[in-house]
Write a structure and sequence with these properties.
By secondary structure, the chain is an alpha/beta fold. 29% of the residues lie in helices and 34% in strands. The two termini are 32 Å apart.
């Protein structure tokens, strides 16, 4: 069942429903590798409680629930939650889904582990709001609980990424024109979605982080035992690694 709360408006209102075809780019093999890595690094066991935010359509949450893990999902996009819920019902799985902004998560000391996966962080113009979102996720954990942040590597983006991108997914043509604000480490993008001759455009703004910035942010909200990896094989984070896995533990003392 999907539970709703008042949501905060922003570029994500129109962007994410249109972004849905991009999920189909991620292969089942990549997803399976991510799921195994989440289970391993967060020490998830059947019966354990996992918070998935932003949970999307259940790419990670559904395989975890299938393994007997009790999954709670948060997302701002109603259509994603509806799809997640429908898939769970067809699979005979029980998941607890909530529609809310990640800055409004108010669980306290409830989850064995939590995750924010596939660059679902850095959405807010105010850096204090991005930090607040991380603090909220920290507070959801039981003392000693572990958290994983999986997101794009700012250093890779600056070194390797092109200013334009164009690809097709199941008959939908998707393009992106990016401008990078070096003063704020923010990508300002215009996305184009073309389907059946109709062209729609959507703005998007994303704060990118280097590894050292995330270490500092994790420490500032209370995480300990912080580690970072550039792949599910625990490769080091370098500018040649497009994605990062940052993992921390909530202190057992608070």
């Amino acid at each position: 069942m999907v539970k709703a709360s008042n949501k905060d408006s922003g570029w994500w209102d129109d962007f994410f429903p249109a972004f849905r075809p991009v999920f189909d780019v991620v292969s089942r093999k990549v997803t399976a590798n991510h799921v195994r890595y989440v289970i391993k690094k967060l020490n998830l066991k059947p019966g354990g409680k996992f918070l998935d935010t932003a949970c999307g359509i259940g790419r990670i949450g559904l395989p975890l629930a299938k393994r007997g893990i009790r999954v709670t999902g948060f997302d701002i996009t109603q259509s994603y939650l509806d799809e997640f819920d429908a898939k769970a019902r067809r699979m005979g799985l029980t998941v607890d889904l909530h529609r809310a902004d990640m800055r409004r998560i108010n669980f306290d000391s409830e989850f064995d582990a939590a995750g924010n996966l596939w660059t679902s962080f850095g959405y807010f113009d105010k850096e204090s709001d991005n930090r607040l979102a991380l603090k909220k996720m920290y507070r959801t954990l039981k003392p000693g609980g572990r958290f994983m942040l999986h997101l794009m590597n700012r250093d890779w983006f600056v070194a390797k990424c092109e200013s334009t991108e164009l690809f097709e997914v199941k008959g939908t043509l998707i393009g992106q024109v990016r401008k990078f604000d070096y003063n704020r480490s923010v990508i300002n993008s215009t996305w184009y979605v073309i389907n059946d001759g109709e062209k729609r455009t959507f703005p998007m703004s994303l704060r990118l982080y280097s590894y050292h910035e995330l270490i500092a942010m994790f420490k500032s909200v209370g995480f300990v035992e912080i580690e970072g990896h550039g792949s599910v094989k625990d490769d080091p984070i370098t500018r040649d690694r497009g994605m990062m896995f940052i993992i921390g533990r909530r202190s057992k003392g608070k």
